[in-house]
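Hi R.,

As promised on Friday, here is the backbone we talked about, encoded as structure tokens. Could you run it through your design pipeline when you get a chance and send me back a sequence?
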């Protein structure tokens, strides 16, 4: 009888410890887990005392706040960490479309591990759909965010790992170049849907070319106050955003050529408007 109770106690203790290890880092209302203990958070800038460390404190009542509409949050892990998605809890005043792109650090090199994902962020706590990334182990990640009309504001960040709660027994994919998918119902297409347009159960990964609309008006506000407006496909818009964020990270060309398409006036085979990175104050994406 004593042996029986001892065995039961050991099983219960093992279950309790395993549960704490797997679920202790959960953030209420979010998928995935908080970054591992020892992770450091750094923002490109911080408004007053709203420090970057607040974005990984396991609480959606605190936040990191930038004083700019384009900013980056960098998370450095204590050891290489396997990721398959990143989820963000954000806020925007006023409500605005915000585009997030995730970069990963491997062997000292930064590279984009997600496509640009545009979300409508509200003037309240907004838990976004998970952003799918190229599955693999990373030393750090950087979340680049660009808002159409609000300072960047992130309450919390969680990550999808090979031991994410609700997915027991998940193994690391044998092909790290193929993004894996969070298995939560209705979230198989993170990043491109506007509220109310989700398609639960769809198995195909989404791309920037398939948002709720396939075209958008890109409005670029220059440092001089001049506004330039372009009617573009979402593929062209996402290419512009990718260039801007790459340049913000320190790589890429200083200028970007935007095709004027139907606005080509005169006897020219084509007309392009060259945008200089250091002349861009902000830009807005209006999908239709």
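Update: got your reply. Pasting your designed sequence below so it's all in one thread:
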């Amino acid at each position: 009888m004593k042996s029986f109770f001892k065995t039961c106690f050991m099983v219960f203790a093992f279950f309790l410890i395993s549960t704490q290890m797997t679920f202790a880092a959960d953030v209420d209302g979010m998928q995935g887990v908080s970054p591992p203990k020892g992770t450091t958070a750094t923002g490109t800038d911080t408004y007053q005392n709203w420090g970057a460390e607040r974005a990984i404190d396991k609480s959606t009542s605190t936040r990191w706040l930038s004083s700019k509409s384009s900013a980056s949050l960098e998370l450095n892990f204590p050891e290489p960490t396997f990721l398959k998605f990143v989820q963000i809890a954000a806020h925007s005043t006023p409500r605005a479309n915000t585009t997030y792109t995730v970069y990963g650090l491997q062997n000292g090199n930064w590279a984009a591990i997600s496509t640009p994902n545009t979300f409508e962020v509200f003037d309240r706590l907004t838990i976004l759909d998970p952003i799918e990334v190229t599955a693999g182990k990373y030393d750090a990640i950087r979340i680049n965010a660009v808002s159409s009309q609000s300072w960047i504001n992130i309450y919390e960040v969680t990550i999808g790992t090979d031991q994410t709660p609700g997915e027991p027994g998940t193994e690391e994919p044998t092909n790290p170049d193929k993004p894996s998918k969070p298995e939560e119902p209705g979230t198989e297409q993170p990043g491109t849907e506007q509220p109310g347009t989700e398609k639960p159960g769809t198995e195909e990964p989404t791309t920037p070319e398939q948002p709720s609309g396939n075209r958008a008006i890109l409005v670029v506000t220059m440092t001089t106050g001049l506004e330039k407006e372009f009617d573009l496909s979402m593929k062209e818009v996402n290419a512009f955003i990718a260039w801007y964020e790459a340049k913000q990270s320190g790589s890429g060309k200083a200028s970007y050529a935007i095709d004027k398409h139907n606005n080509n006036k005169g006897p020219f085979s084509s007309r392009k408007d060259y945008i200089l990175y250091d002349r861009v104050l902000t830009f807005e994406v209006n999908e239709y």
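One thing I noticed while checking it: The two ends are 71 Å apart (CA to CA).

Thanks again,
M.
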